[in-house]
């Protein structure tokens, strides 16, 4: 047996049985019958395992709520009976058996809660009124701006129309002046033609006098 490595086995039975892990054996992960233990462990190894189990059981027995009772020894080993004690009367569980009782609320506490609720209602109403006033002010500003833009557009349109009418009036005056000038020149030419004709044909003038 190798005490430090945690493995048990027999040198004389190496050909028949493989060596096993001591921790696995003690934690009951390896299940063997009483008839197979003698073929796996030597008497010294078996006594060593019994001592380890006894020490572990005695450590558990140090608790006040656990009692260990040794039973009769048998040829296959030694047995123990573990008795769990009753829970302490003042022990508190993780979850209470009954829900906690609600504490009585005084009239002052009720009045205080009502006053707080009324204060919250007033604050909320004031916030709503403030929001509505801001919204109306914004709408008023938008409407005022739209009216100003409309007035500016109307003024600009009127100014453009006046400028256009003035330009048309000036053009019409210039056209009339040009036409009058042409008429004057035409009348002047006709007068010159008439005078020239009278100068060239004096007989016609004397005949007309007779």
TrEMBL record:
Transmembrane segments: none annotated. It comes from the Eukaryota. PROSITE patterns: STATHMIN_1 (PS00563), STATHMIN_2 (PS01041), STATHMIN_3 (PS51663). It is found in: Cytoplasm, Cytoskeleton. PANTHER family: STATHMIN. This is Stathmin 1a. Belongs to the stathmin family. Gene3D superfamilies: 6.10.280.30. Keywords: Coiled coil, Cytoplasm, Cytoskeleton, Microtubule, Phosphoprotein. GO terms for biological process: microtubule depolymerization; neuron projection development; regulation of microtubule polymerization or depolymerization. One of its GO terms (molecular function) is tubulin binding. Its main location: cytoplasm. Residues 86-106, 181-210 are annotated as: Disordered. Residues 181-203 have a biased composition (Basic and acidic residues). GO terms for cellular component: cytoplasm; microtubule; neuron projection.
């Amino acid at each position: 047996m190798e005490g430090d490595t945690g493995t048990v086995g027999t040198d004389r039975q190496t050909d028949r049985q493989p060596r096993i892990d001591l921790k696995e054996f003690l934690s009951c992960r390896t299940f063997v019958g009483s008839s197979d233990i003698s073929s796996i462990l030597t008497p010294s190894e078996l006594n060593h395992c019994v001592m380890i189990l006894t020490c572990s059981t005695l450590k558990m027995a140090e608790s006040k709520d656990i009692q260990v009772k040794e039973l009769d020894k048998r040829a296959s080993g030694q047995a123990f009976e573990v008795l769990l004690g009753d829970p302490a009367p003042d022990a508190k569980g993780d979850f209470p058996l009954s829900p906690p009782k609600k504490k009585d609320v005084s009239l002052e506490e009720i009045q205080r809660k009502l006053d707080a609720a009324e204060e919250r209602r007033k604050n909320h109403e004031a916030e709503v009124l403030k929001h509505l006033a801001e919204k109306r002010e914004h709408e008023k500003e938008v409407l005022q701006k739209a009216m100003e833009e409309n007035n500016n557009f109307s003024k600009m349109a009127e100014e453009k129309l006046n400028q256009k009418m003035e330009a048309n009036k000036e053009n019409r005056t210039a056209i009339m002046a040009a036409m009058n000038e042409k008429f004057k020149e035409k009348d002047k030419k006709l007068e010159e033609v008439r005078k020239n004709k009278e100068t060239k044909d004096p007989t016609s003038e004397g005949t007309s006098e007779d």
